[in-house]
Amino acid sequence: MCEHKSKEPLVVLLNTQLPDMLGESICRYIHQHWPKIDCIFLMNQVHWPTLSRLVESPAKGFVSKYACLEAIRVVQSGKTYLQPDLALDLLRYRLHPTIPQLNSLSSREYEILMMLAKDKSYEDIIESLHISIKTAYNLKVSACKKLNIKEPEEIRELMFSAGQFKTWNS
C-alpha cells in the first residue's frame, strides 16, 4: 500500500483469491466506502472467466503474480529485470530515437535537464542530487552545448518534444 499525506492508501493491491472471501468482494467494499482508493488485482494465474468478471469490477489494474514474483527473483539473483513490454518499447526507441543527441548526455547532465524542464529551481536540484550549485550549473552548460541549446526555454521544449514526460513525469 502507498500512503499519501492524509495517511489513507491511494492504491490497494489485492489477491483475487483470499482464504475467506474473493478479492472482488473486498474491492467492491473498498470502492463503496472509500471511492478515492484504487484497487489493483494480483492474479495467481489467468483464469479467463474470472478475469472477464473482474474487469467489470471497480478495480483499476490487473497484474499477474508470476510477473511480480519473476521481477523479485531476477533482482534478488543480482540481475536487472525489465518488464517485457517496456523492453520492446525500449528496443523500438533505440532503433529510432526521437532526439539522438540525448544519448550523448551523461546521466547527470540528463538528470539536470529533466529537472530544469520540470521547472525545478537550482536549489531543488542541488538539494535532491546533493551537488554544489557550481556543479549543477556546469552540468547544465555542458548538456546545452552538446544539444546546441542557447536559451533556457529550449530545454523544456526539447524534453517535451522528445516525449520524455509521456510516462515518467514525477
Structural domains: how many: 2
By CATH's scheme, which homologous superfamily of the largest domain applies?
Response regulator
Number of helices: 8
Number of strands: 3
The CATH architecture term of the largest domain is 3-Layer(aba) Sandwich
- Gap from first CA to last CA: 18 Å
Describe this protein's structure.
This protein has 170 residues and is mainly alpha-helical. It folds into two domains: 11-76, Response regulator (Rossmann fold, 3-Layer(aba) Sandwich); 97-161, Winged helix-like DNA-binding domain superfamily/Winged helix DNA-binding domain (Arc Repressor Mutant, subunit A, Orthogonal Bundle), CATH 1.10.10.10. Helix content is 50%, strand content 9%. It contains eight helices and three strands. It has helices at 23-33, 48-54, 65-76, 84-95, 107-117, 122-129, 133-147, 153-161, and strands at 11-15, 38-43, 61-64. The protein has a three-stranded parallel β-sheet. Helix 5 packs across helix 7 (133-147) and helix 5 (107-117) crosses helix 8. The model is unreliable at 165-170 (pLDDT under 50).
Short description:
This protein is mainly alpha-helical. Helix content is 50%, strand content 9%.
SSE topology:
Elements: E1 11-15, H1 23-33, E2 38-43, H2 48-54, E3 61-64, H3 65-76, H4 84-95, H5 107-117, H6 122-129, H7 133-147, H8 153-161
Parallel strand pairs: 1-2, 2-3
